[in-house]
Write a structure and sequence with these properties.
Helix content is 39%, strand content 15%. By secondary structure, it is of the alpha/beta class. It has two domains: 119 residues, Aspartate Aminotransferase, domain 1, CATH 3.90.1150.10; 220 residues, Type I PLP-dependent aspartate aminotransferase-like (Major domain) (Aspartate Aminotransferase, domain 2). The strands form three sheets. Strands 2-8-7-6-5-3-4 form a seven-stranded mixed beta sheet, sandwiched between helices. Strand 3, helix 6 and strand 4 form a beta-alpha-beta unit. The longest helix has 24 residues. The model has no long low-confidence stretch (mean pLDDT 95). Bound molecules: pyridoxal-5'-phosphate (PLP). Pyridoxal-5'-phosphate binds next to helix 5.
Length: 370
């Protein structure tokens, strides 16, 4: 270790060991690297239709105001969310993406003596926020790619202060039933905060419809997180929110930065909430694209994990990384999931009909020529 590297020894222990989150490759980066002109990205579960017209108009209208600090309380957006979901504004925490809410809850509740329970193959941000504050991650083995709630409950001890559940889960797309989830939350000790990450809530079909907000009155230790990054098509603006008891929201709001949400994100999210047409179209295009991709997998004799989200995990029955790289060379960015202990899978975000077609043709070409 040379002199400049000694600075690493000064970082807190968890950070010294921390492996940063690896995001999907940006389109511009691949275009630069390979000199390709037509790159498509099916790697970060973004909305292939883009933002809705109402959000765009709100952003346009707010552009001249960006010299001013945003409303740090997010008054208007909180009003709109409170109305839509029939909660009180005191139950809402706004975050710079819902990732920030995950970080706030870790910072507010964890110390190096405490433990956090989450599932194998669960969202990669849970271990990062846990490790950054020096707490101990306890990973419960997955069941059929999804959360095994019994195994998770067994992993809970008197040291467990936080439990993370992604429903649907990323990257597997698995969905837990509302009944099993409610039973799980009820069985948790009241010394344990339960984070229910519903980043893909809007994609869940009405048959399985989610009623987790009804539980907020019963469980003061429940935090639901949702986002404008996925179905609402505003990932680049960074806007997410938490719903919880007023007391839990108060705690999270104490640790957040005073202006954690930017002015454009606030107005765009508020407008997006009123754009039912765009949301409906998004959900429809997603369902059609899911069918298109899984039909394509069937033709290629590939298996996939049935998904409730806007992405699908496909089993290549061979190492995923070389196929990922071959797809890159054809201008298609998908997501390798080796860090999720799924080395033979790739996660494909559902794109437009044309994007899905380009991807399927590229994949067919690669698998037939390997
Ligand atoms: C994408 C995602 C998020 C959050 O994304 P933000 O852009 O920070 O709101 C949270 N949880 C899961 C499971 C996700 O896939």
């Amino acid at each position: 270790m040379n002199n400049t590297d000694k600075i690493y020894n000064l970082a807190v222990a968890g950070v010294q060991q921390l492996i940063p989150y690896k995001a999907g490759k940006p389109i511009e980066e691949l275009e630069r690297e390979l000199g390709l002109a037509q790159v498509i990205k099916l790697a970060s579960n973004e909305n292939p239709l883009g933002p809705g017209k109402k959000a765009l108009a709100a952003i346009q209208a707010a552009l001249p105001t960006v010299a001013l600090y945003p409303d740090g309380s997010g008054f208007m957006l909180k009003q709109a969310l409170a109305e839509k979901y029939a909660v009180d504004v005191s139950q809402i925490t706004l975050g710079n993406g819902s990732n920030e809410i995950l970080e706030l809850v870790a910072r507010a509740f964890l110390t190096p003596e405490l433990e956090v329970v989450f599932s194998q193959h669960a969202f990669a941000v849970y271990p990062i926020v846990t490790q950054a504050v020096g707490a101990t991650a306890v990973v419960a083995p997955a069941l059929n790619y999804g959360h095994d709630l019994d195994a998770m409950l067994q992993a809970v001890t008197e040291k467990t202060r936080l439990v993370f559940i992604a429903n649907p889960n990323n990257p597997t797309g698995t969905l837990l039933s509302q009944a099993s989830l409610e039973r799980f939350i009820r069985a948790l000790p009241d010394t344990c905060v339960c984070v229910l990450d519903e980043a893909y809530f809007e994609f869940v079909s009405s048959i399985d419809s989610i009623n987790s907000i009804d539980w907020l009155n019963k469980f003061p230790n429940l935090l639901i997180t949702r986002t404008f990054s996925k179905a609402y098509g505003l990932a680049g603006l960074r806007m997410g929110y938490g719903l919880s008891s007023p007391q839990l929201a108060d705690i999270l709001n104490r640790v957040r930065q005073p202006f954690n949400n930017n002015a454009l994100a606030l107005v765009a999210a508020e407008a997006a909430l009123t754009d039912d047409e765009h949301l409906q179209q998004t959900v429809t295009v997603n369902a059609q694209g899911m069918q298109q991709l899984t039909d394509g997998f069937k033709t290629l004799c590939l298996e996939w994990v049935p998904s409730a989200g806007n992405f699908v995990l496909v089993d290549l029955k061979q190492a995923g990384l070389p196929v990922y790289e071959a797809l890159l060379r054809k201008g298609v960015i998908v997501r390798p999931v080796g860090v999720y202990e799924l080395p033979n899978h790739l996660r494909i975000s559902i794109g437009t009909k044309e994007e899905n077609q380009v991807f399927l043709e590229a994949l067919t070409d690669i698998l037939v020529n390997v």
